[in-house]
Specification:
By secondary structure, this protein is α/β, with parallel strands linked by helices. The protein has 10 helices and 8 strands. The protein has an 8-stranded parallel β-sheet. Helix 3 links the parallel strand 1 and strand 2. Helix 5 crosses helix 6. It starts with a helix and ends with a helix. The chain binds pyridoxal-5'-phosphate. The site of pyridoxal-5'-phosphate has 13 residues, from strand 8 and helix 10.
C-alpha cells in the first residue's frame, strides 16, 4: 500500500488517467459489463484548477467537488472549458441556491426539503439538475444519507419536482470493510435501485466506487465511479 502510494506520486496526471481508464475498461471486460458503461468522475476536491485543466486537456470532462465555495472559485478559473460539474459533498440548506446555479449533478441529496429548494432555484435556461439520492446502508451515524426504508418515499417525492431529474442512487461504504462486505453493500444499493425501477421510476445511475474499491463497485453494477486519489495523487 505504502509502495503503491509512492509509485502513484511519481506518475504524471496523464499516466494516472491512463491507468484508471485502463482499470475501468478491464473491470468492464472481466465482469461482463458493457464496454463504456462505467463513467469516470474525477474527484478534484482540494486539487488546484491547474490540475483539473491538465486532466481536461486529456479528455476528462466530469469533475466532482465537495465544497461549494472552493468549487465556484475553480469553475471561474476554468470557465473557458466545457466541463460537467458534480456536487458530491454534504448539502447545507443555505447553499442550495449556489449548487443549483453552478452544478450539473448532485450526488448527495438526502432531504426532500433540499430537493424542493434546488427545484425552485434551478434557472429555466439551464437543463434539469441531475440528482442521486445518497443512501447510508450501514447506519453509520457520522455519515450522511437516507436509511434504506426512507428511500422509496423520498424518491417518489423528488421525482415529481420540476427542473430536477432523479437519476439514481449513491453510497459511500464505511472505510473498515473487507472486500466481501464492500461487495455486499454495493449489491444492496443495486437491489434498492432495481426496486425503485420496478416501482416505475426511470433511473440509470449507480454512483459508487472510489479509488480503493472501484473494481468491486463495477462488479456490483456501478455506472459512475468517483475517483480522487488514484487520479490526482494524495490530496494536499
Ligand atoms: C473524496 C471523495 C471521493 C474520492 O475518494 P478517493 O478515495 O480519493 O478516490 C469519492 N466520493 C466522495 C463522496 C468523496 O468525498
Amino acid at each position: 500500500m505504502a509502495h503503491t502510494r509512492l509509485i502513484l506520486q511519481a506518475l504524471s496526471p496523464g499516466q494516472r488517467l491512463s491507468r484508471v481508464r485502463a482499470a475501468i475498461t478491464q473491470a468492464e471486460h472481466l465482469h461482463a459489463r458493457a464496454p463504456g458503461s462505467v463513467r469516470l468522475l474525477a474527484v478534484s476536491k482540494r486539487q488546484s484548477a491547474d490540475a483539473i485543466r491538465e486532466l481536461a486537456a486529456l479528455g476528462q470532462r466530469d469533475f466532482g467537488e465537495n465544497y461549494v465555495q472552493e468549487a465556484v472559485a475553480k469553475q471561474a478559473e476554468l470557465a473557458d472549458l466545457a466541463l460537467c460539474w458534480h456536487f458530491i459533498g454534504r448539502i447545507q440548506g443555505n447553499k442550495t441556491r449556489e449548487i443549483a446555479a453552478h452544478f450539473d449533478w448532485v450526488h448527495s441529496l438526502e432531504r426532500v426539503k433540499h430537493a424542493q429548494r434546488l427545484s425552485a432555484q434551478r434557472s429555466d435556461d439551464r437543463p434539469a439538475l441531475n440528482l442521486c439520492l445518497q443512501i447510508n446502508l450501514e447506519g453509520e451515524q457520522s455519515k450522511g444519507g437516507l436509511a434504506p426504508e426512507q428511500v422509496a418515499a423520498t424518491a417518489a417525492a423528488v421525482a415529481v419536482l420540476p427542473r430536477l431529474r432523479l437519476r439514481g442512487l449513491m453510497t459511500i461504504p464505511a472505510t473498515h470493510l473487507d472486500a466481501a462486505q464492500q461487495l455486499a453493500v454495493f449489491t444492496r444499493l443495486h437491489e434498492l435501485q432495481r426496486e425503485l425501477v420496478r416501482g416505475g421510476l426511470n433511473l440509470d445511475t449507480l454512483s459508487m466506487g472510489m479509488s480503493a474499491d472501484m473494481e468491486i463497485a463495477i462488479v456490483a453494477g456501478a455506472t459512475m465511479v468517483r475517483i480522487g486519489t488514484a487520479l490526482f495523487g494524495p490530496r494536499p
